[in-house]
UniProtKB/TrEMBL annotation:
Keywords: Signal. InterPro entries: DUF4197 (IPR025245). The lineage of its organism: Bacteria, Pseudomonadati, Bacteroidota, Cytophagia, Cytophagales. It comes from the Bacteria. This is DUF4197 domain-containing protein. It comes from Runella rosea. Residues 1-19 form the signal peptide.
Amino acid sequence: MKTSFIYVFTLFVSVNAMAQEETKKKGLGGFLEKAGQVINSPSVGDLSNDEIVQGLKEALKVGISNGSAQASAVDGYFKNSLIKIVFPPDIQRVEARLRQLGLGKEVDRFVLSLNRAAEDAAKKSKPVFVKAITSMTIQDAVGILRGDSTAATQYLRRTTNEELYKQFFPVVDSTLQLNKATKYYADLINTYNKLPLVQKVNPDLKQYATQKAIDGLFVLVAQEERKIRKDPVARVNDLLKKVFGQK
């Protein structure tokens, strides 16, 4: 493994305490600025593989914390066009027809409820991600360090999707019922199915909403990973440019 990898991920361990404060003040950018200051210090030396892996884990925890916080905030899904949950693709014709019938407000209320369910479920994500990061092996870490711009996100999806589904589903189910989204959906679908000459529909709402909530969360985690890899190239120093610019 290149020595430069050792240096860059050591810094995440060295500035972990400072990172907590900087991320509160300036977000991930502030954390990376502090990282740049430490990496220029002559006191950083060779470390073991275990320390390299620990440094990577600390870096990933920053990313997943930010991603989870964004997703679980009010309007974290609803006002983010990248992850907003809309009508299932196979029944979008239902939405269009219902709006033609003057049921636009009811449709909008249903869509909002879907996204509120996802935002509630996202609160369960951080412990699942932390467990996966904690279980990371040296081989996993090397693969992530040498991988593409979302290698860590891909690792997390492989290792957490099933557990996230188990954690998310009951929350989505509960929130959909609390927000009456299940009732809204049933009313909308029943209205549509009564129309003449339409193909009746009845897709599984809860499964759809749960998986879309998970997919949206990974979109945000991938964004955070790209920041960790890319921001130092643009704003910190030549060493980070060399590290993150090579595989």
